[in-house]
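Researcher: We're teaching a course module on how sequence relates to structure. For the next exercise, students receive a sequence and then see the predicted structure as tokens, so they can try to spot secondary structure elements on their own. Here is the exercise chain.
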Amino acid sequence: MYLSDKDLTIRLFDESKKSRRLYIECDKADHPFSLEQISPSSIDLRISDTFWEFRKGIIDLGDDFSIDKTRDKYWNKIQLRDSKEFIVLKPGQCILGRTYEKITIPRDCAAKIEPKSGANRLSLLITLGDYCNPGYSGYYPLQIVNLSKHKIKLYPYISLCQLCLIQLSSETNQHYDETYNYQNDDGGPAKWWNDKQIKKLKVLHEGKDFEHIISEVMGNCNEDEKIVVLNKLKQFYHSNERIPKDDLIAKFEESERKAYKQNRNLIKALKGVPFIPIIALVGIWARIVFDFFSNGEAGANFNFWRIMFVSISIITVILAIYFFGTILLTKLDERIYYKPKSSRESS
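Model: And here is the predicted structure for the students to work with:
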């Protein structure tokens, strides 16, 4: 049974039983919730100023060690600054948005998020999954797809969907709480990795705490490094499935140690590159001094402007090597996640 506007209003403001109350929260004072959003049997919801755009590539549903970094890997977050800004949705393009309102569903009701008729008439598909469990709380995700042949501008805080409450026969025994992936959700991309996080490799190690093993093998990893190490270990396991389970960690550690030495040697070599043009520059100016004492001032002046031009060019090369080399060394050093504990403690 769908609740009417009368019952929806009671649910919004009745404090007598909090588990039966419908909560709608708005975090910006200039865009508050209004009673005008209540329709005969639904409540209009607006889209927020936050969107996620899928990056090009393949989403790997087996990528279960990426934790929250997976969002940055697969999605580009778009944050609009005010209500005048917009995003352009191309024909056939899909973008992930969310409701501006944060909703909390009563424990004796289920809910559905339905697109508004105006959006349908624009060939704008608003959501593919529209069901909310009793007790759900969060910003509801909206899969927005442009099914038309025209570009569509989307502005924040416009109403494209509506919330309907469905009365259950009784209040549920089980509630949608913090044990579920999307409770208190920000409406962003999927968190499929939370369902099986680190369990595969825990099984491989006969129930041992795999994160503890990683810390022992790789040194005192911080959280960002641990994410990368787990991803690399997963890739190593899939490409070396013939390795006995008991030898997996030892082989992986050996592989990472070799990569660490190779990267360190490459870093040392790159640090020596700027000295080559410096030595050449010193040699050129040594030649000027030699010409001056050998041939007199005339011989030195003959080569002066040509040598100045070459010197300026070499100095420019040195500065370029230093600038781009610093960036390259930083990126290369970030890729080194196997660091012996002694080097970590000394740093």
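Model: If you want an answer key for the exercise: The radius of gyration is 31 Å. The chain has two domains: 5-193, 199-346.
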